[in-house]
Every structure is written in C-alpha cells, then in structure tokens.
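From the pipeline queue, job 12 of 40. The input is one protein chain; the requested action is below.

Action: predict structure.
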Amino acid sequence: MEWEWLAQLERSGSIAPSQGWQPLHVALYRDRELRALAPLYLKSHSWGEFIFDFIWQEASAALQEDYFPKLIGMVPATPCSAYRFLIDRREDSALINHLLLQIIDNLAQEVGARSCAFNYVDHAWMKQIEGQNYLSWLHEGFRWQNEGYLTFEEYQTHFRKNQRRNVRRERNELQEQPLEVAILPAGEAPPSYSNRMYALYANTNKKFGPYGAHFLNQAFFQGLHSHLGHRVLFCCALPQGRKGEPLAMSLLVHKNNQLYGRYWGAESYLNALHFNLCYYEPLEWAIAHGYHFFDPGIGSPHKVKRGFQAVGTYSLHKFYSSRLQEIAAHHLRAINQQTQEYLNRLNEDLPFKEEPH
C-alpha cells in the first residue's frame, strides 16, 4: 500500500487502461491537504485479482444482467491482505470510512459500475466497515508466525520427526547442486538482476499458458532497483563462485518486520529449488532478522507441511444489482463455512509436535 509500489505499477504500464485497469483513485482533502485516499480501479475483466469471481459472473449472466465494468479496491496483481483506505491520523476514521464508501457508491453510478469489491482486505479495517452492505467472502491464505525462534535449526526442532527429515532432505538436495544461494536487497543487487528477475518470472508463467499470472511487464521490474530497492529482496540461486546471472530467483517484499513472497522463476527445473528459494531461505532470513510474519503467497496446500498455517483472507463485495446482491448474500454464508472447514482440514497436516499439556 506504499505510494511507490502503486505508482510503479502504473508508471510501468503494467496497471493501465490498456490492460483493463483504469485508475479511479478517490482522494479527500481538507484545506487543500490530502487527508484520505482510496486506491480504486475500474475494470473490464477479473484477471490479476486472484479473487476468482466467475461464479458471480455466471449468476449475472443467468439473470441476463451485465457484470462489467466493476470497481476494484486492491493492490493490483498482489494477493496480500493489505488493502484499506488510507486515512490521516488526525481524522475520525469511522467518519472518513463512511464518507468514502458513499463517494464510491456515487462514483459507481456515474461510471456505470455494476459492483464494487475490495480484495485482500486488512482484517482490522474490514471490521471497521462492517454493516455497510458489503458481503464478506472467505478465501484460502497461508501465514508463518515467528514464535521467538533464534535460528532455522531451532525452528525445525518443533517439527515432528518425519517432516523434519523431509525438510532437511529438501534443503540438502539444493546444497548438493553446484549452486550458491544469496539474499540481496534489490537496491544493492546489480541492476541487471531486475531484468533477470523479469525474464525468469515471465518464463515460469509461460508454462501455465492462459492461466499464467503474467501481469507485470519488464519496466515494472526495471524500476525496482531505483524506486523500491529498500523494500524488495532477491533470493538468488547463483552458479558456484557467483560467476554469471542467477539461475533462479524469488522476489520478496518486506516492511515492519513482515515478509511477503511475491514472484519466482527458474531457468530450468531442479528438485526442491522452488521450496528453498520461496520458503526455506526466506524463512531463515526472516528468523535471522527478527521478522515475526511471513506470507509466502496464495495457493499450494503443500505449504502447510512446511510450517505455514492455512488462514482465511477476505474480499468484500457489493453488487448494485439487487437480485445479484440477494443471491450472493444467500449463498456466501455456506460458501464461507465450507472454506473454513477446508482450512481446518489443511491445518491437520501442520508438522508441529503437540505441546505437552
């Protein structure tokens, strides 16, 4: 939610009207001083949101109603639970939240939006706007919490024997390769690493065809070194001796003792490479630097066996079609209950020993 991240998405052309994202940010001023901001986009498709709302599109089609355009509040192409209205601390947040929601309703009518959704919302903010006719929709997420671990090895002692052995085997498989792993702040890495990160990211997404999450262009990655070098980390698998470009990379974002896994790519497949660059090496870095939270990204239940708890993330939805709003309200309670039961089942596979009573 930092200005530089949102600005880099737009100035790079990754998030732009030509890509189906029309920025329509709502700003409130008091005496010409910015006091509140709601990052908002008008959209003609659902790609890049990671909230798969096709069931509501189908319901809308069955009602013979238009589903697009729609207003979306989120950090584009970034499924991290961060979205909220940004409000100056001098203002009454409850009053400003209410006012912004009213303005957004008026904006939706003005631009012909059929709905408004806030995706991957900050949980505390979600509670602040309860009762504003937005429906909450529960989704799958993952989180690692630092319980005061001093080293990665100490963290592993809390695993059951079998899973501890599996993690050690996966780490050893990488160490047996002619590779070196390094985690570098983007601002300190060679500028060429930004281009390399883009190439690996694009190559990996290409393998998934139309379902690849290739939403960011090369210009976005090129701007990381100068604009976001203090927030971005590159986790690199380098040839032995560090001669040459990285063979695989993951990109992480960090702030306020919190770490977020975002993108990854590899030149070719190596066993356990993904697990090490996206989970184990970032975890070791987080522990060494005293970070207390790591969100490794959405999807892939195999994260649970590696110590990431399945947690709920939320999107909030308001459909301006009264019929679609009624249908969604009727079904979401059961959908959310099923999702919560699924998360509970996933967490039965957490690898930790049972604590003595």
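Job complete. The mean pLDDT is 95.
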